[in-house]
Amino acid sequence: MAARKVWFHVDVNSAFLSWSALRLLQKGETLDLRTVPSAVGGNEEKRHGVVLAKSQAAKKYGIHTGESLFSARLKCPDLIVTPPDFDWYVQCSKGLIAILNDYSPVVEQFSIDEAFVEMTGSEGLFGPPVQAADALRERVLRELGFTVNVGVSVNRLLAKTASDFEKPNRTHTLWPEEVPQKLWPLPVGNLFGVGPSAVRTLDALGIRTVGDLAHADPEVLRGAFGVRGDSLRRHANGIEGTPLGKREVRDNSYGNSVTLPQDLTRPEQADATLLALSESVAGRLRTDGKTARVVTVQLVDNLFRRTSHQTVLANPTNTTETIYQTARKLIRQMWPHRPVRLVGVTAEKTSADQFEQLDLFTDARHSDKQEKLDRAADALRSRFGDKAVVRARLLDPADKPVTPGALSAAKARDKRKKGQ
Ligand SMILES: [Mg+2]
């Protein structure tokens, strides 16, 4: 039998608040904001400033993230409010990831203050998982000055759930055999991916706890949620299915995304990447004999804020050029104020219809020719590999082809380098 997998989920406790507290201490402030009712909040002068993060002491006053500073002060007049310092947060985040890279070559950052670390087979180096997790927590606190929770299990889903148990500065396991005792009694809304609207739907079905969901009738769940019902039930049983942070669980969708080697500040810098992603998405559609009606572009900025924009096409397509041109337009409409670290392209609402429905304004011959060209390129690629056909625009000034394959290879190379 193969050795069981081990995943850590590392989550910074009250990240923005504790990082700001740390910054102030470094600047000579003697009060540690973590020990008093305090909050990080934006734009106090403008009336709509909101709480971005709060201390444990502030939480005791019933203050929650997202509420207005005005209402937070009504609950706790002594509340100390400090503005956010996003550039400092990015530095803290990088410090954390650098330490995690010492523990494993497989570190997947999930948000600015969370990451998954695969620890399978590392017992010889770091000892049993719980011991390794404790040592990791202590090292982060000693070297960086802030606390983290570490969740330990056989997959990302359970590890992430475990890190959310009692805080701060704790290691928690949630092994599959612990699921009935530790996971099932929790309210169903605590399960990853179950938002308020799913909670309402489940409540109407009499499903209140994760255990209720784990044992619910699959047909009933499918009736209420479609195929997503199956994945909800799997999650309640501790089975991950599609890895968290990987491709989105959605039917009929072909997507690809890439974390960029460096953050981009202008949409033009993303064009070559968009073309490579469009090529890979369109190629998969063509392989499956499908066309898509909706093109979506996803961006993640360097604070890990995700945005996405989409367009419904006049005619379903599987040509690289159409998907690429649509993505280019979208990315220019949605470019954020902060540098971009991840770009994704998804084609959705696919159907098996092989024929584009042409409207009066489409040049039928052009589209047909484009599709033939694309098909010929796919055929060459499948015979001779990814580098056989490289569009001129995918060639960077150094003449290195940037194909989808090359992108993922570069990513894997990056990972290995970081792991050293
Ligand atoms: Mg956190």
TrEMBL record:
Keywords: Cytoplasm, DNA damage, DNA repair, DNA replication, DNA-binding, DNA-directed DNA polymerase, Magnesium, Metal-binding, Mutator protein, Nucleotidyltransferase, Transferase. Pfam families: IMS (PF00817), IMS_C (PF11799), IMS_HHH (PF11798). Its EC number is 2.7.7.7. Transmembrane segments: none annotated. Mg(2+) binds at residues 11, 113. It comes from the Bacteria. It is an enzyme of class 2 (transferase). Its main location: cytoplasm. It catalyses: DNA(n) + a 2'-deoxyribonucleoside 5'-triphosphate = DNA(n+1) + diphosphate. Its cofactor is Mg(2+). InterPro entries: DNA/RNA_pol_sf (IPR043502), DNA_pol_Y-fam_lit_finger_sf (IPR036775), DNA_pol_Y-fam_little_finger (IPR017961), DNA_polymerase-Y (IPR050116), DNApol_IV (IPR022880), PolY_HhH_motif (IPR024728), Rev_trsase/Diguanyl_cyclase (IPR043128), UmuC (IPR001126). Binds 2 magnesium ions per subunit. The keyword DNA-binding applies. Residues 236-257, 395-420 are annotated as: Disordered. Residues 7-195 form the UmuC domain. Monomer. Poorly processive, error-prone DNA polymerase involved in untargeted mutagenesis. Copies undamaged DNA at stalled replication forks, which arise in vivo from mismatched or misaligned primer ends. These misaligned primers can be extended by PolIV. Exhibits no 3'-5' exonuclease (proofreading) activity. May be involved in translesional synthesis, in conjunction with the beta clamp from PolIII. HAMAP family: DNApol_IV. This is DNA polymerase IV. It comes from Gemmiger gallinarum.
